## 1
Amino acid sequence: MKNNWFKNFKSKFKIIIVHPETYEEKGGFNMSKMKITMMVVIYSLVLIAGTTCLIFFTSLREMIPGYTDVTLDRRIYNIERRADSLEEVFRQKDMYIKNIKRIINDEIPDDSIQAMAHININKPNVTKNSMLKSENDSIFRLQFEAETQYNLFGSPFLNSTDKSNMPTFFVPVNGLVTNHFNSNNKHFGIDVVANVDAVIKSIADGTVIFSGWSVESGYVIGIQHDKNLVSLYKHNSALLCQEGDLVKAGDAIAIIGGGGSNSTGQHLHFELWFQGRALNPEDYISFEIN
């Protein structure tokens, strides 16, 4: 019985192709049950293998429920990198804003900014190396460093009495200086008494970084200039600029006043800061009454 089934399984059949109307024979081929079975199995295996490769090596696998996106790990990595970068930028911005507020409230800036004042302003940070230097080169370096160790804007004027080397600043308001700069008493600027409703002007081109009200200083405006220079104008009665505004030297930015708990009357309290260090404005600007 078994042999008959196997013999019948191997027996061949002839498949003939004929014309449907004339019944003319057009061709034919021999076929057996075993051959048909083998063709079906091989076709099924090829179909299964092709489908498997198509799913695992193409984006079609993402259509399978529960299968994760192939680019998910890369996108998570990029998002984490951007988050870290943004966190560092926000930290620096937050520190900068805090120091601006400390300056406005007549407080000493944080050590991270204050420490910058001990660095020579335009002196390059050169590390020692194994290169040999000639005697003339060493003498020239010493002379150059001695001339530029207090360089603020590229000209040695910070401790110099030569007015020609100083940059030109626009006078914020013409008036009488009634209280001078004294860092020992935490008076980091000067007080200038001027005419009623006198217009306060920007000393140089810059961007308004603070424009608002302070309990101690009344209406305050702060401007960021080139070379890390910041100018502050306190005790105003009105402000003419908002944060983010670009101003030119001589532009009207406020109206003189006497607001704030620290004010003793109508005047301008003017401060000049460089890298966390307060500068004496009278060293760079001449305040006179017209």
## 2
Amino acid sequence: MTDAPMDYASSGVDIDAEGVAVASLVGALSSSVRKKGEFGAPVPLPGGFGGIIEFGEYRLALATDGVGSKLMIANELQRYDGVGIDCVAMNVNDLLCVGAEPIAFVDYIAVPKTDAGTHAILGKSLAEACKRARITLAGGETATLPGIVTELDLSGTALGWFPKGEAITGEKIQDGDIMIGLPSSGIHSNGYTLVRAIVERSGCSLTEKCPFDANHDHRNIERFEEGDITLGEVLLNPTKIYVEPLVDLIKDCRDGIGPCEISDIKAMAHITGGGLSNLLRLHDDFGWHIENPLPILPEFNWLAEQGSVSNREMHRTFNMGMGMTLVVSRDMAISVEKWLRKRLPGTKCIGYVHNKKKEVTHVDEDITFSHY
């Protein structure tokens, strides 16, 4: 087995090139025909994790995403029990970052040929996801596309709302604010092109006993086999949905019964593709230092070892055990941390905001990011 270092770009996904492509797409889009003050008029939110539109005294937020190449592992194993959860999670977690309460979801399934059994499993998975996210599955579309798709693909769009003027935007972040990390349930739904390349190099089977101890204090592996936990089960563990407790936190703080004022919650970041560099989306002028990171989940250590992947590349590609980050006022950080930790064990303060330089730094000096 070669020890040549692996990274996301060499496995087929270049995050920097994707950023340039997305910027080109956005730059080519025309402005909305809906004008300010009209239902559906756009509400600017630079760096936001969801799109916002006007709706009278309310604001609607929309997010769209898919499961990505994690589905290739699900297709290989013919195990779709968790992919509906992945799809809903990737969307509703983005809505949370703008302070929106998710309320509805629509899915899009593309297949080379229809299979009633597979669709029944997907339906059950989507229903479970909507239960966890406390939302309505409002509809969807299934397309049979032989010659266009070769394997099942799944994506969707989520709708949320919040009162006018109460978006969580990051614009009021200050020097000294504290970051709180919320633990992930695993790899979630990003970086699987690299994951699959590393698994292939390792020679390990997805259906055999996991080659490392997958146990961790603050997460469970959702089983679809009896006996030993398999590598496939670990890699397909569903993405954590953070609606509970974050919607409850936002509501309680808006109602004056939470652990802080709503103004003390400055920003939220969903740690997805791009890893810790997602923090740079929250403000143009501040830096971020991680001095007390959440424990790294065992699958990330195994991937790094098997693929000879650098720490920086791992933190650029994966969540590394932290699925969401909140930025809160320094004086309220302990109160918010305690409130969240009761509902999501493993939550803790991980670092702080500073005004020295716009970059992400880490207790590991090799991990720095200056652009998203």
## 3
Amino acid sequence: MESGEKFMRWALDLARYGRGTASPNPMVGAVVVSDGEIVGEGYHRVPGRPHAEAAALRDAGELASGADLYVNLEPCCHHGRTPPCTEEIIESGVVRVFAAMVDPNPRVAGRGLSRLREAGVQVETGLLEDEAQRLNEAYTKYIGSGMPFVTLKMAMTLDGKIATRTGDSRWISGDEARKWVHRQRAASDAVLVGIGTARSDDPRLTCRLPECPESAQPLRVIADSLARLPAGARLLWEAPERPVLVACTGDAPQGRLEKLRYAGAQVETFQSRPDGDGLDLKSLLHGLAAREITSVLCEGGGELAHGLVFSGLVDSIVIFLAGKLIGGRDAPTPLQGAGVDSMDEVLELCDMEIDRVGEDLRITARIPPMEGES
């Protein structure tokens, strides 16, 4: 099975080429193997284009007959934007299919594998399944819960500050950490910040790495309950062709909404929090999912981060820890808000990992689902 792992890892590597462009579809790669050699390969690029299996089979041509197919996700068996991959696999003459994981989409969910078996194709599942699950965790959550996968990114100093008391935060993290953020923007369907960050930092929220394709630029979302984003904000006029969504509540003054629309922003009204104090973040994320947003990168600030974390809406946290000290009782911290009253109420993180990125330490962790969440 060692050679099988090699081929499945190649399929996983191919799948990653679809990061940032394949959504809302999953990232899928496939390789056709004959006599221990790869004779065809492919990956899913964008919705509406051939799926990975179809691309790999067409690359292999007649060499697919009698060959094995390695794919990181169960082949589809239904008509969507493209024909079912199962039928093309059967017609190609492939004799064995190795699928790393079953597709959680109810339209597939084992039916693709069953169709292949019915046609006499040998099917095996589970090879590098954990890696395959991790690769498409945003897709899996989106399909299973109707909510996007949320990653919270924070950069702070060793004394836990995200800016000075005057609000200056450029730059806490180093060059390599900032490059990681740009890559993560390209990999995410949307980037989310609060109105405080939008006003104080005046960010662009785009991926500015030269290798980033235009199709990988994220939707930029501002949580702005009262429509306080200035019409002259950089993210509106420096990249007007890239969409900006200003998420407001019904309390936002109509005049401000019209100014933002005139400046090119998409303005949408969402529910207020039950206590009436600001935007209901779960309503916002449901609204983003309705736009086929499967993954969201939240870049701050502290109030928004607190609201997401303590509402059970964050799946993954990435903290860049810089070897710098700011000090000051009024300097902001990554999580503002009210916080908890006692240590019995703290959120325990899991799957914590620490590595070095340039000058900074990167800490990644998961937040287990809160009680009552799934």
## 4
Amino acid sequence: MQITTINGIKVHYSVEGPENGFPVVFSNSLGTDFRVWDALLPHLPEGLRFIRYDKRGHGLSEAPDAPYFMGDLVKDAAALMDFLGVTDALFIRLSIGGMIAQGLAAERPDLVRAMVLSDTAAKIGNEQIWAERVAAVRKGGIAALTEPTLQRWFSKGFHADRQDELAGWRHMLSRTPSEGYIGCSQAIAETDLYDSTSRLTLPTLAIVGSEDGSTPPDVVRETADLIAGCQFHVIRKAGHLPCVEQPRQMAALIAAFIKENGLG
């Protein structure tokens, strides 16, 4: 277990792979910890240095009292990379993690050489949607949102055929600290990255599950279109977490992107 203090909070992280490997930094979605990437890693090219962490309020990282701001989450990512001495990395980011990546690429371009944005957008939802979710968690805890969230996260086929795995994801979500979920929800609600993302020019790959109920393909494509030269791919038979449902397909897209852009 690797834990360090970043911006006044304890942050849980993992570093795997050779010290001289090309750095690949992952960030997970709302309501998950960094195990969300477990199924993807074995299918990615060899020789990479994988850096994963639990953002504030999630997994084994501390959950300070809400509210959080996107600037907090971006500063956490930057501070962890500075602590590890990592620059010029490939960022693979999911959902809110993709928002963090966009913010970091705009504010600290020295840290981000290229991005893979999975099931994310420059703006996700609206203030009313997030206010309703925050109110529901304050009243009834994460349990109040668990089943609707799982419906958005996974495809119909996953719900029908992979019940044992679904139970594990239900447990992960339900164990997310309420303050962490609320704080990150508030950060998403107040974030609009259209202007800063439209000025990005770094190599970018945008991926989305065809059955994503949180950030549907049209929403992700809209953000991909903001970034000059951004590639866009839809992964069939996947919801909001294609790294879980279709890791081989997602890894193949990332491997091709790495090769095309001379990364690794």
